[in-house]
Amino acid sequence: MSISHPRVRVIALELMPPIRDKFTIHSRAVVCQDVELKGDITIGPGTVVHPKATIFAIAGPIIIGSGCIIEEAAIIVNRRKEVMRVGDNNLFEIGCRVECPSVGNFNTISTRARVHHTVRITNYCVIGAACLVVPTDDETLDDYTSIFGPAAERRTWSGRGRIQEADLRLKHAEYLREMLPKFNRLRRGDGA
After folding, report:
1. pLDDT per residue as tens digits for the range 1-13
2. Taking the CB of residue 2, how many other CB atoms lie within 10 A of it?
3. Buried b / exposed e across 139-154, counting CB within 10 Å, b at 16+?
């Protein structure tokens, strides 16, 4: 039988152990009810998760730091058995997909960008809109790396304006923490 046969896929799914859901959502985090969560997920203080975002801890747990913004249709997936750590004050824009095992602090994953599980992101990196970052070998992006354009070209940012960007990101998160609860139902975790 070939692997593409529909019955083979059904049998393989039945043999996998079920994923246990355990959500730890900090009391100061704003997580909308329409978010799709699966697995062992910890969400830190001040983090904002928009409706229709997806966070799947398939093989190992996901720990999301403080002050992150995860927008609509963003997908965060951990396919590895190790803990996926997402640092503080990261921005995951609309429709991006991130599978990398570690994300540092103050990174921006732009709209419709995709980051493969062989990449590790450090600090102050920017993955441009619709960029596809899929190296064949494990790779760690250096601090201040910017990836842009259809060919996923790379450049190192000088760091100028980083304080202003951090202030703007903090104001953005503060605004969302104030406005989202007015128009959306919120989700609480096991710990809240």
Report:
1. 445 555 544 444 4
2. 5
3. eebebbbbbbeeebee
The DSSP line for 106-143 is: S-EE-TT-EE-TTEEE-SS-EE-TT-EE--SS-EEEPT
H or E element, residue 64 = strand 62-64
Query: With contact defined as beta carbons under 8 Å apart, do 130 and 112 qualify?
Result: yes
pTM above 0.85, yes or no: yes
**Residue 97: count of CB within 10 angstroms of its CB:** 18
Do residues 187 and 32 lie in contact, with contact meaning Cβ atoms separated by under 8 Å?
Answer: yes
CA–CA gap between residue 15 and residue 184 (Å, rounded): 37
Residues in a beta bridge with 31: 49
Element spanning 68, H or E? none
Tokens of 71: 């927008």
- Greatest alpha-carbon pair distance for the chain in Å reads 59
Q: Please write the tens of the pLDDT for every residue from 98-115.
A: 999 999 999 999 999 999
Structure tokens at 6: 């529909």
